[in-house]
Design goal:
Largest sheet of chain A: 2 strands, antiparallel
Largest interface: A-B, 52 and 52 residues
Order of helices and strands of chain A: HHHHEEHH
Shape of chain A: globular
Oligomer: homodimer
Strand content of chain A: 5-15%
Structural class of chain A: mainly alpha
Distance between the termini of chain A: 40 Å
Number of strands of chain A: 2
Number of helices of chain A: 6
Strand order of the largest sheet of chain A: 1-2
DNA sequence: TTGTAATAGTTACTTTTGCAACCAACAAGG
DNA sequence: CCTTGTTGGTTGCAAAAGTAACTATTACAA
């Protein structure tokens, strides 16, 4: 017999969060992979440009908390497949402005619809109140541990 | 102007879940990596054996929803580093029973403590009620979409 | 028996990632 | 101008993950 109550895996938030994140992402992942051959970093870049308009790689990285190498590769592949255009900033020639092409916009709109209805499906498992609580909790947990 | 309200990334549960999962896992990940050179699949196997005792790879896979190749590799590395032992079932020689060695138990206890205090740190960002709500919501979302 | 299918687990191959080093353009101080 | 540091972005290499195909063993039925 244990003298001490054990810490359970089912209580460990990072574990639970990962499980929920993984399984809840599966179906959507399949969609952007099958329809457009995209990876997670790629649809994220696509969505950022679709939602907020033209911006630089650094800015996407800051918003999405993605490392710049991931972005760099995602941008490369998206440009290669003509979902986005890259144009140098004339004042600071290190910088590139990224924007969706028509093809990119179409993909964005399509995936956006899929995401929306898929999200509705997920939310249907919870009450409105639960959804609100969940969002606010996730927001708090998404902040880095120190600071 | 858009005639239609846009679906936002901040409303998309799989996105939020992934963000929260990733950032909330970082610090713990660093611990098991730095102290024991483990990967995620490895500490998960370790914890399953530590919590529930001897079991087979298939059973761990079922409980943790991990693919068998992931488990196979995790088991291989854990055994190589003498955290676990593998013993063939005498009645069904396809099956292997996995169990922690003393070294494995020690690592488990150590990491278990870290996980517990780290979890407390995370939970401190939320009220008790929020934690309960969160757990129940995550549980509902961790179920596969169809069925 | 023998043939077919299921199950436990491993391996081979390809695609992704993670990290560090790197290049190019700018910035600021002397 | 020159040096030093910073920033935007890329690349090379090693580690890790995903997939499917594979071996070995058992189960079951003709």
């Amino acid at each position: 017999m244990n003298s001490k109550k054990h810490f359970k895996l089912q209580e460990f938030l990072p574990y639970l969060l990962n499980q929920a994140a993984e399984t809840s992402s599966l179906a959507f992942q399949k969609t952007y992979k099958d329809r457009y051959g995209m990876l997670r970093a790629e649809w994220r870049v696509l969505f950022h440009l679709g939602l907020y308009g033209e911006m630089t790689a650094v800015e996407i990285g800051r918003r999405a908390q993605m490392h710049k190498t991931k972005i760099s590769r995602a941008v490369h592949k998206l440009a290669e497949r003509r979902f986005i255009t890259r144009s140098r900033d004339l004042k600071d020639r290190r910088v590139e402005h990224l924007a969706l092409t028509d093809r990119g916009k179409e993909a964005y709109r399509d995936l956006s619809k899929v995401a929306e209805s898929y999200n509705a499906e997920l939310e249907a498992r919870l009450s409105d109140e639960e959804v609100d609580h969940l969002r606010s909790a996730l927001e708090k947990l998404a902040k880095p541990v120190h600071g």
